[in-house]
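Here is an idea for our session: we take a single protein and study its fold together. To get us started, please write out a protein record for me. Start from the sequence, derive the backbone structure tokens from it, and show both lines together. Go ahead whenever you are ready, and we will take it from there:
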Amino acid sequence: MKTVRNLSRVAVAALTVGLVVGGFGVGVASAAPATDDGDKLSGRLTALAAVDVSSDPAVAEQQLANASPAELALPGSGPVSLQLNGGSVAVTIYYTTPPLAADIDALAALGTVDSIAAKYLVVGATVPAGNLEAVAALSNVQSVQETLTPTSSGSAWNTANALTVTDTDTDAPTQPSTDVAADSCRAVPANLTEPLNVPLARELYGVDGEGVRIGIISDSFEHAAFATHTTAAEDVASGMLPGPGNPCGYLQAVEVLKESSAGGSDEGRAMAQLVHSIAPGATLLFASGGGGQAGFASAVETLSAGGADIIVDDLGYADETMFQDGVAANSMNDAVALGIPFFTAAGNDTSIGSIGESDGRVISSWEAPEYRPAECPAAIADYLYVFQITSADCMDFDPGAGEDPTNTLTFPDLEARGLTALVMLQWAEPAGAATNNLVVAVTDASGELVAGTPLAAPGSPVQVAAFQPSAGDYNYTIVRDTSDGVPALNPRVKTIFPSSHLRAAEYSQSEGGDVVGPSIYGHAGTPSGLSIVAADAETPTELEYFSGTGPMTLYFEPFPSTNALPEPISGAPTVTSLDGGWTNFFGQEVEGQTGVYSFTGTSAAAPSAAAVAALGMQLHPGLTPQETRDALTETAIPIDSIVESVPVADSAGAGLVDAVGFLAALPGATPTPTPTPTPTVAPTPTTTTVPVTPTGVPVPGVVTPTPTPTPTTTTPTPVAGGSQLASTGADASLGLGVLAGALALAAGLVVVAAARRKRVDEK
């Protein structure tokens, strides 16, 4: 691994600091930092702007690529890498006020505008490296930051996760159960339906999702960067997707409203296959979330305007804020405010230690209630010139009376496998108004610097670093720039070690106010959404070892506010759903089953939960996000935590989704077994306008309507002597027990439960 080279220093002016919220180490700023135009670029973009790129696009791209992986502490490709196109780089431009047409035109003159999310103050663009400084100098620009490739929570990302617990892949797909018969009109059986109790639910209530429109956000639908085993047309012909020619009779076409402009993995198509296997009558919509958080917000707006009744996504952005709802979370909040239940993958970032004191502990993250300044270790002091820092202190990881400026981390040999370790560092100051400048420094056993981040964009409290460790120990240090004086605020500090690679950490246990473990971040932990964790379809009562854990705690009002919340708000996983769903092209091929692939990760669990919700929305049109949440959580089947030391609610949420219980808990639901309805082509969607809500910033001259609540069609009747549930009106014993109220329903569940026990006993 190359040593990090010198980078131009980004000078960030001091920000007037307001009050410190007692006990939380959270600062409230009066305004964004004042910067010169040259200081508006992030440290990485400052370095790329200095590259003398060739006029040959292929050569220019290689020049930028050569400058990015080692020297800028980013992977060369894949999740969290720079997005390069010739001599251009994808960037996110943050504005001080919503950009107007003149702002967009000025940007378009310097690069290609990719995604516009004006009410969230961001625009995504691809800009030639030589024009980066000119973009920073545009009127109304607050900062310009690199747009990193988003992560997904599916098989493509999880393949690496499976290699981190032992030296071999212990998470290979299992042989399909012999008692799951292939549907005569499907090329691959719908293996998620039975463990989610879907067949009985569909039989009792006569639903298949007909009339419900489900929006999917992922990397791409049919624009993979590599050859896939099938095409979308072949998926339709084989019964794996709906559309004209579907042999099962589900002729409603998938509506691809926004495809990726760059090559992806077609994970969105795999998600669509899982949704179709559970709710085959539903109409599917797709919008790519590529292009950073601006692209995600654009996708949410596109699906909302396209008439989506439910939205599900599986993307994560390394620059999403951990202490404050950012751009992606705000767009999700706005969709929920419109009445759209929003399902999101909780991520595959949990690391369970396997060495020494870390063995059996969840060590995915480390967090301290405040920055504790300490003297930097000699190895780091020798490298301060790399960061162009003349004075610094370092974080003290020891929560007790001692002082320790390093946290020793133990990794497997990722370098030999071509895999990358990631470090996400953030501190609790408002986005765009941070007064502290922290950088990541990682040294190996010999003291050599193997990863060092340049200073963040002005006012940004976000850092991301990547490196390729060989097997062994690495010292992780958090360095604070004090060149312009010691900041008045010592904010809360949090680091997540995503990707489930970590095997041991020196500080592996929560103590003294420090918190170790939770891995959920960004919009995946925002309370308005339904955060979905994963259990395998073959063992549905056991969480996947990599499945995300909470809680995630918010301390500030949504971006761009700089106000602290009166009290912190914590969100944990909502419910558990199932991964290991079978597709005909995506994931790892199932042993002994040609053409059958196991799609694992919370990317598979989220769409399976969303599909169950679609069955409920057909039964109860106008189902609200809160009603959806209540019915799912009140009827979930309890399961154990990921490890004993983590509360069940922080790892499994309310428990495993049960389709029968969910439908039974909906307002006015009565089991009336009828034949499955014949699918029909869904009507053409009516375009609507997404209103601006308090999470967005009003755009001058744009009139936006206020959402009108959909009236509930059924008024629940109180049950004598029963305790009423707040939203559903169903008797509490029904909501919690699921079985009361219908003998046929109870009998069906007993049969299913017995079958499940039989399968588990046989394993």
About this structure: The chain is about 20% helix and 20% strand.
